[in-house]
Every structure is written in C-alpha cells, then in structure tokens.
Specification:
Helix content: 10-25%
Number of helices: 5
Mean pLDDT: 97
Structural class: alpha+beta
CATH architecture: Alpha-Beta Complex
Low-confidence stretches: none
Largest sheet: 6 strands, mixed
CATH class: Alpha Beta
Oligomer: single chain
Bound molecules: zinc ion
Shape: globular
Number of domains: 1
CATH topology: Fumarylacetoacetate hydrolase, domain 2
Number of strands: 16
CATH superfamily: Fumarylacetoacetase-like, C-terminal domain
Radius of gyration: 16 Å
Length: about 200
C-alpha cells in the first residue's frame, strides 16, 4: 500500500514557510509504518527539533488507476477521512537547503495519525472545512476550495507516473497555520461533517 502526499498545495501555507507556489504538484511518500490510530499517543522523537502538525483531507482508492482522466480518477475514490501529516520541520528545512529528500522528516513511526474512513458517496471534495486545535486553541482553519490542485487533478497527475492500487492513500496538502507540538498537548483534527481525530502528544 502506498501513501502519496503533496506539498505546498495551498498557496498561503507555501508562503508561510517561505516557499514560492509550485508549477506542478510536489510529490513525496510516507511509509505505511507511519500510520497512527485515532486516540493513540504521538511520540515526539528525541533530538530532532520541531515536529509540526498539518491537518489534511485524505482520500483512499477503491480500484486501480493508471493514466486516468480527472473525472475517472474521482470515480475511483472509495473513502475519505482526516489526516495529520506530522513533519520534523527542522530536519525538512535542513534537507531542503541541502537539496536532499524529505523521507526521514516525514516518515517516522507514528507520523501519520489517521481518522476513521468514511464512504466517499460522491460528495464535493472541494468544499470541505479543515480544522485543527492544539488544546483548546484553533491553530489551523481552511477550506479544500483553496487547494491549488483539487483531488481529481492530483489523482490524475499521480496516475500519469505511478500506478495507483486499491487501498492506496492520497494526502492532499495542508492549509496555513502549521506549528510545533510539545509533550503534554492534545491535538484534534477535523474535516467538518466527515471525520475527527484526537491524539495526545508525549515525549
Ligand atoms: Zn502535508
């Protein structure tokens, strides 16, 4: 099973990290071992600097996609949920500066808290609200209307260069408001009306 992710898919988030808006989707992977259940503790690895939260819409495929059109790609979605694309931001920034991959910064065990899958049922994926709270404070609030590439275009683009299999997951990028987590906090993510996710943070 693959977990394909896209970076800088919301212009305001690209800007908050000092990045230009990309001309094409920026793809990266997270490993299956990064998945963390709703309610399970997020363990911050020692000595790696800041670990940031990123609330995102996640979609799962129900059938194989290869060189698909956007419309066909959307028909292959079988479920959606909320994800927290945890990122070792200092490691990622160092990798970016050195022109090196982000694999470790994105791939620690437990770096992908994932909500319960909900049937897609043809709902409008470009009109969903994303929210993330740390403790009682709302830290991220966005709408999937602001994606640079919508879900259909992302899946079509991805399927132009890699075959997507049933069960594969796409993370669609985060809106602005990302920030660090510290031990003792509680992080709550929501795709409003779809799914919620809550994880305590431990050291
Ligand atoms: Zn992300």
């Amino acid at each position: 099973m693959k977990i394909l992710c896209v970076g800088r898919n919301y212009a305001k988030h690209a800007r908050e990290l000092g990045n230009a808006a990309p001309q094409a989707p920026i793809w990266f992977w997270k490993p299956e071992s990064s998945i963390l259940a709703d309610g399970a503790p997020i363990t911050l690895p020692a000595n790696i600097g800041a670990v940031h939260h990123e609330v995102e819409l996640a979609v799962r495929l129900g059938r194989r996609l290869r060189k698909a059109s956007p419309a066909d790609a959307l028909r292959a979605v079988d479920a959606i949920t909320v994800a927290n694309d945890l990122t070792a931001r200092d490691l990622q920034e160092a990798a970016k500066k050195a022109g090196l991959p982000w694999a470790q910064a994105k791939g620690y065990d437990g770096f992908l808290p994932l909500g319960t899958w909900v049937p897609y049922d043809g709902r409008d994926l470009q009109n969903l609200q994303l929210k993330l709270w740390v403790g009682g404070a709302l830290r991220q609030e966005g709408t999937t209307r602001d994606m640079t590439w919508g879900v259909a275009d992302l899946l079509a683009h991805a399927s132009s260069w890699t075959t997507l299999e049933p069960g594969d997951i796409l993370l669609t990028g985060t809106p602005d408001g990302v920030g660090p987590l510290v031990a003792g906090q509680d992080v709550r993510c929501e795709v409003v009306g779809v799914a919620t996710l809550r994880n305590p943070v431990v050291g």
